[in-house]
Protein backbone atom coordinates (compact mmCIF):
# COMPACT_ATOMS: atom_id res chain seq x y z
CA UNK A 1 0.00 0.00 0.00
CA UNK A 2 1.22 3.53 -0.83
CA UNK A 3 2.65 5.34 2.19
CA UNK A 4 1.05 8.77 2.59
CA UNK A 5 3.26 11.60 3.78
CA UNK A 6 0.37 13.11 5.69
CA UNK A 7 -2.75 11.62 7.18
CA UNK A 8 -5.12 11.04 4.18
CA UNK A 9 -8.21 10.86 6.42
CA UNK A 10 -7.37 14.26 7.83
CA UNK A 11 -6.65 15.68 4.39
CA UNK A 12 -10.07 14.48 3.24
CA UNK A 13 -11.76 16.33 6.14
CA UNK A 14 -9.77 19.49 5.48
CA UNK A 15 -10.57 19.57 1.76
CA UNK A 16 -14.23 18.75 2.41
CA UNK A 17 -14.61 21.62 4.94
CA UNK A 18 -12.73 24.18 2.83
CA UNK A 19 -14.64 23.04 -0.30
CA UNK A 20 -17.98 23.40 1.47
CA UNK A 21 -17.10 26.88 2.73
CA UNK A 22 -15.91 28.02 -0.71
CA UNK A 23 -19.18 26.74 -2.23
CA UNK A 24 -21.27 28.51 0.44
CA UNK A 25 -19.32 31.76 0.05
CA UNK A 26 -19.61 31.81 -3.76
CA UNK A 27 -23.35 31.12 -3.53
CA UNK A 28 -23.73 33.74 -0.81
CA UNK A 29 -22.19 36.40 -3.07
CA UNK A 30 -23.98 35.35 -6.25
CA UNK A 31 -27.44 34.17 -5.12
CA UNK A 32 -29.41 36.91 -3.39
CA UNK A 33 -31.90 34.41 -1.98
CA UNK A 34 -29.25 32.31 -0.25
CA UNK A 35 -28.55 33.17 3.39
CA UNK A 36 -26.25 30.49 4.80
CA UNK A 37 -25.50 30.31 8.52
CA UNK A 38 -21.70 30.04 8.45
CA UNK A 39 -21.61 29.42 12.19
CA UNK A 40 -24.48 26.94 12.41
CA UNK A 41 -22.24 24.19 13.77
CA UNK A 42 -19.43 26.26 15.34
CA UNK A 43 -18.59 24.55 18.64
CA UNK A 44 -16.74 27.57 20.07
CA UNK A 45 -19.90 29.65 19.69
CA UNK A 46 -21.81 26.80 21.31
CA UNK A 47 -19.55 26.72 24.38
CA UNK A 48 -19.73 30.50 24.77
CA UNK A 49 -23.51 30.35 24.41
CA UNK A 50 -23.65 27.63 27.05
CA UNK A 51 -21.56 29.76 29.47
CA UNK A 52 -23.85 32.68 28.82
CA UNK A 53 -26.85 30.44 29.49
CA UNK A 54 -25.48 29.13 32.80
CA UNK A 55 -24.54 32.58 34.04
CA UNK A 56 -27.43 34.72 32.74
CA UNK A 57 -30.12 32.17 31.96
CA UNK A 58 -30.11 33.56 28.43
CA UNK A 59 -28.61 32.48 25.12
CA UNK A 60 -26.34 34.69 23.04
CA UNK A 61 -28.08 36.02 19.93
CA UNK A 62 -28.42 33.76 16.90
CA UNK A 63 -27.12 30.75 18.83
CA UNK A 64 -28.66 27.43 17.96
CA UNK A 65 -29.08 24.11 19.76
CA UNK A 66 -26.85 22.55 17.09
CA UNK A 67 -23.98 24.81 18.13
CA UNK A 68 -24.48 23.92 21.79
CA UNK A 69 -24.53 20.19 21.02
CA UNK A 70 -21.39 20.63 18.88
CA UNK A 71 -19.77 22.52 21.78
CA UNK A 72 -20.54 19.61 24.13
CA UNK A 73 -19.22 17.14 21.56
CA UNK A 74 -16.06 19.22 21.16
CA UNK A 75 -15.45 18.99 24.91
CA UNK A 76 -16.11 15.22 24.93
CA UNK A 77 -13.74 14.66 21.99
CA UNK A 78 -10.95 16.71 23.62
CA UNK A 79 -11.32 14.92 26.95
CA UNK A 80 -11.60 11.41 25.56
CA UNK A 81 -9.62 11.53 22.29
CA UNK A 82 -7.73 14.74 21.53
CA UNK A 83 -8.11 18.20 20.02
CA UNK A 84 -9.45 16.73 16.78
CA UNK A 85 -11.42 19.88 15.91
CA UNK A 86 -8.08 21.74 15.58
CA UNK A 87 -6.42 19.11 13.40
CA UNK A 88 -9.29 17.82 11.26
CA UNK A 89 -11.93 20.56 11.00
CA UNK A 90 -10.90 24.12 11.90
CA UNK A 91 -10.61 26.07 8.61
CA UNK A 92 -8.24 28.61 10.19
CA UNK A 93 -5.99 25.74 11.33
CA UNK A 94 -6.02 24.28 7.82
CA UNK A 95 -5.21 27.62 6.16
CA UNK A 96 -2.46 28.31 8.73
CA UNK A 97 -0.94 24.92 8.04
CA UNK A 98 -1.05 25.36 4.26
CA UNK A 99 0.43 28.88 4.44
CA UNK A 100 3.08 27.51 6.81
CA UNK A 101 4.12 24.92 4.24
CA UNK A 102 4.66 27.77 1.77
CA UNK A 103 6.85 29.55 4.33
CA UNK A 104 8.74 26.27 4.83
CA UNK A 105 9.23 25.87 1.09
CA UNK A 106 10.83 29.32 0.86
CA UNK A 107 12.80 28.57 4.04
CA UNK A 108 11.23 31.55 5.79
CA UNK A 109 9.33 29.80 8.54
CA UNK A 110 10.69 29.74 12.08
CA UNK A 111 9.75 27.83 15.18
CA UNK A 112 9.72 30.06 18.24
CA UNK A 113 11.12 28.41 21.35
CA UNK A 114 12.37 29.29 24.82
CA UNK A 115 11.11 32.27 26.77
CA UNK A 116 9.52 33.96 23.73
CA UNK A 117 7.43 30.84 23.07
CA UNK A 118 6.39 30.62 26.71
CA UNK A 119 5.45 34.29 26.89
CA UNK A 120 3.46 34.29 23.62
CA UNK A 121 1.43 31.27 24.72
CA UNK A 122 -0.30 33.48 27.33
CA UNK A 123 -1.92 35.59 24.56
CA UNK A 124 -4.56 33.00 23.69
CA UNK A 125 -5.68 32.69 27.34
CA UNK A 126 -5.99 36.47 27.62
CA UNK A 127 -8.05 36.56 24.41
CA UNK A 128 -10.22 33.67 25.66
CA UNK A 129 -10.88 35.52 28.93
CA UNK A 130 -11.83 38.74 27.09
CA UNK A 131 -14.04 36.87 24.58
CA UNK A 132 -16.01 34.88 27.15
CA UNK A 133 -16.26 37.86 29.53
CA UNK A 134 -17.84 40.11 26.90
CA UNK A 135 -20.08 37.32 25.58
CA UNK A 136 -21.44 36.56 29.05
CA UNK A 137 -21.89 40.20 30.03
CA UNK A 138 -23.51 41.31 26.77
CA UNK A 139 -25.25 38.11 25.54
CA UNK A 140 -23.73 38.87 22.11
CA UNK A 141 -21.08 36.61 20.62
CA UNK A 142 -18.02 38.81 21.08
CA UNK A 143 -15.76 36.52 19.00
CA UNK A 144 -17.68 37.56 15.87
CA UNK A 145 -15.97 40.96 16.12
CA UNK A 146 -12.51 39.60 15.38
CA UNK A 147 -13.00 36.03 14.15
CA UNK A 148 -10.99 35.93 10.87
CA UNK A 149 -13.09 33.02 9.60
CA UNK A 150 -16.42 34.77 10.23
CA UNK A 151 -15.18 38.06 8.74
CA UNK A 152 -13.86 36.38 5.58
CA UNK A 153 -16.86 34.17 4.78
CA UNK A 154 -19.51 36.80 5.52
CA UNK A 155 -17.64 39.59 3.71
CA UNK A 156 -17.26 41.59 6.98
CA UNK A 157 -20.91 41.63 7.99
CA UNK A 158 -22.32 44.14 10.48
CA UNK A 159 -21.25 42.17 13.60
CA UNK A 160 -17.59 42.37 12.56
CA UNK A 161 -15.22 45.08 13.81
CA UNK A 162 -13.29 45.91 10.62
CA UNK A 163 -10.04 46.88 12.39
CA UNK A 164 -10.05 43.86 14.72
CA UNK A 165 -10.93 41.41 11.93
CA UNK A 166 -8.35 42.78 9.45
CA UNK A 167 -5.69 42.56 12.17
CA UNK A 168 -6.73 38.96 12.90
CA UNK A 169 -6.64 37.99 9.20
CA UNK A 170 -3.21 39.61 8.85
CA UNK A 171 -2.00 37.67 11.90
CA UNK A 172 -3.23 34.38 10.40
CA UNK A 173 -1.63 34.98 6.98
CA UNK A 174 1.63 36.74 7.87
CA UNK A 175 2.06 34.97 11.22
CA UNK A 176 1.59 31.49 9.74
CA UNK A 177 4.00 32.19 6.87
CA UNK A 178 6.88 33.18 9.16
CA UNK A 179 6.10 31.39 12.42
CA UNK A 180 4.99 27.80 12.90
CA UNK A 181 1.23 27.71 13.60
CA UNK A 182 1.32 31.25 14.96
CA UNK A 183 -2.46 31.64 15.25
CA UNK A 184 -3.17 28.19 16.74
CA UNK A 185 -0.36 28.24 19.27
CA UNK A 186 -0.41 31.82 20.45
CA UNK A 187 -3.65 33.59 19.55
CA UNK A 188 -6.62 31.24 19.09
CA UNK A 189 -9.04 31.46 22.06
CA UNK A 190 -10.54 28.11 21.08
CA UNK A 191 -7.02 26.66 21.34
CA UNK A 192 -6.83 28.00 24.91
CA UNK A 193 -10.27 26.63 25.73
CA UNK A 194 -9.31 23.27 24.24
CA UNK A 195 -6.24 23.16 26.48
CA UNK A 196 -8.41 23.85 29.54
CA UNK A 197 -10.47 20.77 28.68
CA UNK A 198 -7.31 18.86 27.74
CA UNK A 199 -6.25 19.38 31.38
CA UNK A 200 -9.55 17.81 32.34
CA UNK A 201 -8.76 17.05 35.97
CA UNK A 202 -7.83 20.70 36.47
CA UNK A 203 -11.12 21.76 34.89
CA UNK A 204 -13.13 19.37 37.04
CA UNK A 205 -11.24 20.36 40.20
CA UNK A 206 -11.66 24.13 39.83
CA UNK A 207 -15.26 23.93 38.54
CA UNK A 208 -16.16 21.50 41.34
CA UNK A 209 -14.66 23.85 43.93
CA UNK A 210 -16.56 26.81 42.47
CA UNK A 211 -19.83 24.83 42.49
CA UNK A 212 -19.27 23.70 46.08
CA UNK A 213 -18.59 27.26 47.25
CA UNK A 214 -21.74 28.49 45.49
CA UNK A 215 -23.72 25.65 47.07
CA UNK A 216 -22.57 26.73 50.53
CA UNK A 217 -23.64 30.31 49.85
CA UNK A 218 -20.24 31.80 48.93
CA UNK A 219 -21.13 33.53 45.70
CA UNK A 220 -18.11 34.23 43.54
CA UNK A 221 -18.58 35.77 40.11
CA UNK A 222 -18.24 33.33 37.20
CA UNK A 223 -15.50 35.48 35.77
CA UNK A 224 -13.14 34.51 38.63
CA UNK A 225 -13.61 30.84 37.77
CA UNK A 226 -12.75 31.64 34.16
CA UNK A 227 -9.67 33.61 35.24
CA UNK A 228 -8.52 30.76 37.50
CA UNK A 229 -9.00 28.21 34.70
CA UNK A 230 -7.02 30.35 32.22
CA UNK A 231 -4.12 30.98 34.64
CA UNK A 232 -3.95 27.34 35.77
CA UNK A 233 -4.07 25.94 32.21
CA UNK A 234 -1.36 28.39 31.11
CA UNK A 235 0.82 27.29 34.04
CA UNK A 236 0.33 23.60 33.20
CA UNK A 237 1.13 24.31 29.54
CA UNK A 238 4.39 26.05 30.53
CA UNK A 239 5.36 23.33 32.96
CA UNK A 240 4.57 20.61 30.37
CA UNK A 241 2.71 18.70 33.06
CA UNK A 242 1.75 15.31 31.69
CA UNK A 243 -1.88 14.39 31.73
CA UNK A 244 -1.86 10.86 33.08
CA UNK A 245 -5.44 9.77 32.36
CA UNK A 246 -7.01 11.95 29.70
CA UNK A 247 -7.25 11.77 26.76
CA UNK A 248 -7.62 8.02 26.46
CA UNK A 249 -5.99 7.91 23.02
CA UNK A 250 -2.32 8.81 22.64
CA UNK A 251 0.40 8.34 20.03
CA UNK A 252 2.84 5.62 21.15
CA UNK A 253 6.26 4.70 19.77
CA UNK A 254 7.61 1.18 19.68
CA UNK A 255 11.22 1.70 20.76
CA UNK A 256 12.20 -1.75 19.51
CA UNK A 257 11.29 -1.18 15.89
CA UNK A 258 12.10 2.58 15.81
CA UNK A 259 15.33 3.38 13.92
CA UNK A 260 15.53 6.96 15.28
CA UNK A 261 15.44 8.37 11.76
CA UNK A 262 13.71 11.54 13.09
CA UNK A 263 11.28 11.70 10.14
CA UNK A 264 8.27 11.83 12.49
CA UNK A 265 9.71 14.76 14.44
CA UNK A 266 10.32 16.69 11.22
CA UNK A 267 6.78 15.91 10.01
CA UNK A 268 4.96 16.95 13.18
CA UNK A 269 3.11 20.22 12.43
CA UNK A 270 3.41 21.11 16.13
CA UNK A 271 7.20 20.56 16.20
CA UNK A 272 6.90 17.90 18.91
CA UNK A 273 9.99 15.73 19.30
CA UNK A 274 8.06 12.54 18.60
CA UNK A 275 11.21 10.47 18.04
CA UNK A 276 12.26 10.91 21.66
CA UNK A 277 8.95 10.02 23.33
CA UNK A 278 7.54 6.64 24.24
CA UNK A 279 4.06 8.14 24.51
CA UNK A 280 3.24 11.60 23.14
CA UNK A 281 1.55 13.49 25.98
CA UNK A 282 2.40 17.03 24.83
CA UNK A 283 -0.56 19.41 25.15
CA UNK A 284 0.02 20.60 21.56
CA UNK A 285 -0.53 17.11 20.09
CA UNK A 286 -3.91 17.17 18.41
CA UNK A 287 -3.81 13.59 17.09
CA UNK A 288 -3.35 14.83 13.51
CA UNK A 289 -1.74 11.46 12.74
CA UNK A 290 0.89 12.85 10.33
CA UNK A 291 3.72 11.26 12.33
CA UNK A 292 2.16 7.80 12.04
CA UNK A 293 1.77 8.17 8.29
CA UNK A 294 5.36 9.24 7.59
CA UNK A 295 7.03 6.68 9.79
CA UNK A 296 8.76 4.18 7.45
CA UNK A 297 8.69 1.39 10.05
CA UNK A 298 5.36 -0.44 10.04
CA UNK A 299 3.25 0.07 13.19
CA UNK A 300 6.10 1.73 15.05
CA UNK A 301 4.01 4.79 15.70
CA UNK A 302 0.46 3.83 16.62
CA UNK A 303 -2.52 4.86 18.66
CA UNK A 304 -2.29 3.22 22.10
CA UNK A 305 0.24 0.70 20.70
CA UNK A 306 -2.25 -0.56 18.12
CA UNK A 307 -2.46 0.52 14.45
CA UNK A 308 -5.91 2.05 14.05
CA UNK A 309 -4.75 5.14 12.14
CA UNK A 310 -8.30 5.64 10.92
CA UNK A 311 -9.82 5.73 14.43
CA UNK A 312 -9.87 9.54 15.00
CA UNK A 313 -11.59 10.11 11.62
CA UNK A 314 -14.25 7.48 12.39
CA UNK A 315 -14.86 8.94 15.87
CA UNK A 316 -15.31 12.39 14.32
CA UNK A 317 -17.76 11.17 11.66
CA UNK A 318 -19.86 9.30 14.23
CA UNK A 319 -19.94 12.13 16.77
CA UNK A 320 -20.63 14.88 14.21
CA UNK A 321 -23.52 12.84 12.81
CA UNK A 322 -24.91 12.31 16.33
CA UNK A 323 -24.43 16.02 17.04
CA UNK A 324 -26.35 17.11 13.92
CA UNK A 325 -29.22 14.72 14.70
CA UNK A 326 -29.48 15.71 18.39
CA UNK A 327 -28.94 19.40 17.63
CA UNK A 328 -31.91 19.47 15.28
CA UNK A 329 -34.21 17.59 17.63
CA UNK A 330 -34.60 20.29 20.31
CA UNK A 331 -34.24 24.00 20.80
CA UNK A 332 -32.71 25.78 23.79
CA UNK A 333 -34.64 28.93 24.79
CA UNK A 334 -32.89 32.23 24.10
CA UNK A 335 -34.31 33.61 27.35
CA UNK A 336 -36.41 31.91 29.97
CA UNK A 337 -37.86 34.20 32.61
CA UNK A 338 -40.43 33.29 35.25
CA UNK A 339 -41.59 36.02 37.61
CA UNK A 340 -44.63 34.27 39.07
CA UNK A 341 -44.73 32.22 42.27
CA UNK A 342 -42.59 29.13 41.52
CA UNK A 343 -44.66 26.99 43.90
CA UNK A 344 -47.71 27.40 41.66
CA UNK A 345 -45.90 26.94 38.33
CA UNK A 346 -47.47 23.50 37.84
CA UNK A 347 -50.94 25.05 37.87
CA UNK A 348 -50.12 27.59 35.15
CA UNK A 349 -51.35 27.18 31.58
CA UNK A 350 -49.03 27.77 28.64
CA UNK A 351 -49.55 29.43 25.28
CA UNK A 352 -47.11 28.98 22.40
CA UNK A 353 -46.87 30.98 19.20
CA UNK A 354 -44.41 30.56 16.33
CA UNK A 355 -43.60 32.74 13.34
CA UNK A 356 -43.01 35.95 15.32
CA UNK A 357 -40.31 37.39 13.09
CA UNK A 358 -39.49 40.20 15.53
CA UNK A 359 -38.28 37.60 18.07
CA UNK A 360 -34.82 37.41 16.54
CA UNK A 361 -32.20 38.01 19.23
CA UNK A 362 -31.55 38.47 22.94
CA UNK A 363 -32.54 42.17 22.81
CA UNK A 364 -35.91 41.61 21.12
CA UNK A 365 -36.57 38.64 23.43
CA UNK A 366 -35.91 40.82 26.50
CA UNK A 367 -38.20 43.58 25.16
CA UNK A 368 -40.90 40.99 24.63
CA UNK A 369 -40.49 39.66 28.19
CA UNK A 370 -40.65 43.22 29.59
CA UNK A 371 -43.85 43.86 27.65
CA UNK A 372 -45.42 40.62 28.94
CA UNK A 373 -44.49 41.43 32.57
CA UNK A 374 -47.04 44.24 32.36
CA UNK A 375 -49.86 41.87 31.37
CA UNK A 376 -51.89 40.84 34.41
CA UNK A 377 -51.98 37.07 34.85
CA UNK A 378 -48.84 36.35 32.79
CA UNK A 379 -46.19 34.63 34.95
CA UNK A 380 -43.26 33.97 32.62
CA UNK A 381 -41.96 33.65 29.07
CA UNK A 382 -39.43 31.66 27.10
CA UNK A 383 -38.32 32.68 23.60
CA UNK A 384 -36.73 30.58 20.86
CA UNK A 385 -35.18 32.83 18.23
CA UNK A 386 -34.30 29.97 15.86
CA UNK A 387 -37.97 29.33 15.17
CA UNK A 388 -39.22 32.82 16.23
CA UNK A 389 -41.38 31.14 18.88
CA UNK A 390 -42.57 32.32 22.30
CA UNK A 391 -43.96 30.26 25.16
CA UNK A 392 -46.00 32.10 27.77
CA UNK A 393 -47.01 30.89 31.24
CA UNK A 394 -50.28 32.39 32.47
CA UNK A 395 -52.74 31.96 35.30
CA UNK A 396 -56.04 30.78 33.71
CA UNK A 397 -58.05 32.21 36.61
CA UNK A 398 -56.76 35.71 35.76
CA UNK A 399 -56.46 35.73 31.95
CA UNK A 400 -57.73 33.47 29.14
CA UNK A 401 -55.80 32.15 26.14
CA UNK A 402 -57.39 34.58 23.68
CA UNK A 403 -56.40 37.56 25.84
CA UNK A 404 -52.82 36.27 26.08
CA UNK A 405 -52.79 35.96 22.30
CA UNK A 406 -54.20 39.47 21.98
CA UNK A 407 -51.59 40.89 24.38
CA UNK A 408 -48.81 39.87 21.95
CA UNK A 409 -50.45 41.67 19.07
CA UNK A 410 -49.60 45.28 18.17
CA UNK A 411 -52.37 46.98 16.13
CA UNK A 412 -51.12 49.47 13.52
CA UNK A 413 -52.25 52.36 11.34
CA UNK A 414 -50.13 52.87 8.22
CA UNK A 415 -50.78 55.87 5.95
CA UNK A 416 -49.11 55.26 2.59
CA UNK A 417 -50.52 58.53 1.15
CA UNK A 418 -50.82 61.60 3.36
CA UNK A 419 -52.58 64.97 3.25
CA UNK A 420 -55.84 63.92 1.56
CA UNK A 421 -58.56 66.58 1.22
CA UNK A 422 -62.32 66.75 1.88
CA UNK A 423 -63.04 66.18 -1.82
CA UNK A 424 -61.09 62.90 -1.98
CA UNK A 425 -63.31 59.82 -1.86
CA UNK A 426 -61.88 56.74 -0.11
CA UNK A 427 -63.05 53.10 -0.45
CA UNK A 428 -62.44 50.38 2.16
CA UNK A 429 -61.76 46.66 1.88
CA UNK A 430 -62.18 44.54 5.01
CA UNK A 431 -59.98 41.44 5.12
CA UNK A 432 -59.09 38.63 7.48
CA UNK A 433 -55.53 37.48 6.80
CA UNK A 434 -53.82 34.30 7.96
CA UNK A 435 -50.09 34.26 8.86
CA UNK A 436 -50.08 38.00 9.55
CA UNK A 437 -49.20 38.88 13.12
CA UNK A 438 -46.03 40.68 14.12
CA UNK A 439 -44.45 44.11 13.34
CA UNK A 440 -42.37 42.62 10.51
CA UNK A 441 -45.62 41.67 8.79
CA UNK A 442 -46.66 45.33 8.96
CA UNK A 443 -43.45 46.33 7.15
CA UNK A 444 -43.81 43.63 4.52
CA UNK A 445 -47.48 44.39 3.87
CA UNK A 446 -46.62 48.08 3.50
CA UNK A 447 -44.02 47.17 0.83
CA UNK A 448 -46.58 44.98 -0.93
CA UNK A 449 -49.38 47.59 -0.90
CA UNK A 450 -47.06 50.36 -2.11
CA UNK A 451 -46.90 48.51 -5.41
CA UNK A 452 -50.40 49.78 -6.27
CA UNK A 453 -50.64 53.58 -6.45
CA UNK A 454 -54.39 53.48 -5.69
CA UNK A 455 -53.77 52.18 -2.16
CA UNK A 456 -53.76 54.88 0.50
CA UNK A 457 -53.06 52.95 3.71
CA UNK A 458 -54.22 50.21 6.06
CA UNK A 459 -55.07 49.48 9.69
CA UNK A 460 -54.90 46.19 11.60
CA UNK A 461 -56.73 44.98 14.69
CA UNK A 462 -56.59 41.80 16.69
CA UNK A 463 -58.78 38.89 15.66
CA UNK A 464 -58.16 35.29 14.63
CA UNK A 465 -57.11 35.66 11.86
CA UNK A 466 -56.03 39.31 12.05
CA UNK A 467 -58.49 41.90 10.71
CA UNK A 468 -57.05 44.35 8.17
CA UNK A 469 -58.79 47.31 6.57
CA UNK A 470 -57.19 48.53 3.35
CA UNK A 471 -58.06 52.05 2.18
CA UNK A 472 -57.96 52.83 -1.56
CA UNK A 473 -58.98 55.62 -3.91
CA UNK A 474 -62.62 55.25 -4.88
CA UNK A 475 -61.94 53.77 -8.29
CA UNK A 476 -63.83 50.95 -10.01
CA UNK A 477 -60.60 49.41 -11.39
CA UNK A 478 -59.51 48.30 -7.92
CA UNK A 479 -61.47 45.22 -6.96
CA UNK A 480 -61.44 42.53 -4.27
CA UNK A 481 -59.54 40.31 -6.71
CA UNK A 482 -56.84 42.99 -7.19
CA UNK A 483 -56.34 43.35 -3.43
CA UNK A 484 -56.38 39.59 -2.79
CA UNK A 485 -53.76 38.92 -5.48
CA UNK A 486 -51.57 41.71 -4.14
CA UNK A 487 -51.71 40.50 -0.52
CA UNK A 488 -51.18 36.84 -1.42
CA UNK A 489 -48.08 37.41 -3.59
CA UNK A 490 -45.29 35.02 -2.64
CA UNK A 491 -42.34 37.42 -2.49
CA UNK A 492 -41.56 41.08 -2.08
CA UNK A 493 -38.34 42.97 -2.80
CA UNK A 494 -36.72 44.73 0.16
CA UNK A 495 -34.00 47.35 -0.32
CA UNK A 496 -31.35 47.09 2.40
CA UNK A 497 -29.38 50.00 3.87
CA UNK A 498 -26.44 49.17 1.54
CA UNK A 499 -28.88 49.38 -1.46
CA UNK A 500 -28.73 45.62 -2.05
CA UNK A 501 -32.05 43.97 -2.91
CA UNK A 502 -33.34 41.12 -0.79
CA UNK A 503 -36.29 38.91 -1.72
CA UNK A 504 -38.57 38.24 1.25
CA UNK A 505 -40.76 35.14 1.16
CA UNK A 506 -44.38 35.81 2.08
CA UNK A 507 -47.16 33.46 3.06
CA UNK A 508 -50.25 35.61 3.67
CA UNK A 509 -53.60 34.03 2.92
CA UNK A 510 -56.74 36.09 2.57
CA UNK A 511 -59.49 34.15 4.33
CA UNK A 512 -62.25 36.74 3.90
CA UNK A 513 -62.38 39.90 1.79
CA UNK A 514 -65.27 42.25 1.16
CA UNK A 515 -65.52 45.76 -0.13
CA UNK A 516 -67.39 48.13 2.18
CA UNK A 517 -70.46 49.66 0.61
CA UNK A 518 -69.55 52.97 2.26
CA UNK A 519 -66.90 55.47 1.29
CA UNK A 520 -65.28 58.07 3.49
CA UNK A 521 -63.79 61.47 2.75
CA UNK A 522 -60.05 62.15 2.55
CA UNK A 523 -60.24 64.13 5.83
CA UNK A 524 -61.90 61.19 7.61
CA UNK A 525 -59.08 58.94 6.28
CA UNK A 526 -56.47 61.39 7.66
CA UNK A 527 -58.21 61.27 11.06
CA UNK A 528 -58.32 57.47 11.14
CA UNK A 529 -54.59 57.29 10.46
CA UNK A 530 -53.69 59.50 13.45
S1 LIG B 1 9.69 8.04 11.95
FE1 LIG B 1 9.30 6.06 12.93
S2 LIG B 1 11.30 5.05 12.85
FE2 LIG B 1 11.69 7.21 12.45
S3 LIG B 1 12.12 8.07 14.48
FE3 LIG B 1 9.96 8.33 14.14
S4 LIG B 1 9.06 6.54 15.07
FE4 LIG B 1 11.21 6.06 14.83
S1 LIG C 1 2.74 14.10 17.59
FE1 LIG C 1 1.92 13.17 15.75
S2 LIG C 1 -0.29 13.25 16.03
FE2 LIG C 1 0.59 14.65 17.52
S3 LIG C 1 0.55 16.63 16.50
FE3 LIG C 1 2.58 15.72 16.09
S4 LIG C 1 2.31 14.68 14.14
FE4 LIG C 1 0.27 15.10 14.91
Percent of residues in helices comes to 40-55%
Q: What is the count of helical runs? A: 21
Number of distinct beta strands: 14
Number of domains: 4
Strand content: 15-25%
Could you say which structural class the secondary elements and strand pairing correspond to?
alpha+beta
Bound compounds:
iron/sulfur cluster
The coarse silhouette is elongated
Give the C-alpha Rg.
29 Å
The strand line-up of the biggest sheet is 8-10-11-9-14
| Main beta sheet | 5 strands, antiparallel
Q: How far do the termini sit from each other?
A: 81 Å
Oligomeric state: single chain
Mean pLDDT: 89
- Regions with pLDDT < 50 over 5+ consecutive residues? none
Describe this structure in words.
There is one protein chain. By secondary structure, this protein is an alpha+beta fold. It folds into 4 domains: 37-248, no CATH class; 250-305, Alpha-Beta Plaits; 335-408, 2-Layer Sandwich (Alpha-Beta Plaits), CATH 3.30.70.100; 413-528. Helices cover 46% and strands 15% of the residues. The protein has 21 helices and 14 strands. The protein has helices spanning 8-30, 43-56, 65-80, 84-89, 91-105, 114-120, 122-138, 148-154, 162-178, 182-187, 189-198, 200-215, 222-239, 263-267, 290-294, 311-327, 362-373, 401-408, 439-449, 480-487, 522-528, and strands at 251-253, 279-280, 301-303, 335-338, 349-353, 378-384, 389-394, 413-415, 425-434, 455-461, 466-473, 491-495, 501-505, 509-521. The strands form 4 sheets. A 5-stranded antiparallel sheet has the order 8-10-11-9-14. The protein has a 4-stranded antiparallel sheet with strand order 4-6-7-5, with helices on one face. It has a 3-stranded antiparallel sheet with strand order 2-1-3. A hairpin with a 5-residue loop joins strand 12 (491-495) and strand 13. Bound molecules: iron/sulfur cluster (SF4) (2 copies). One iron/sulfur cluster binds at residues 253, 258-264, 274-275, 295, 297, 300-301.
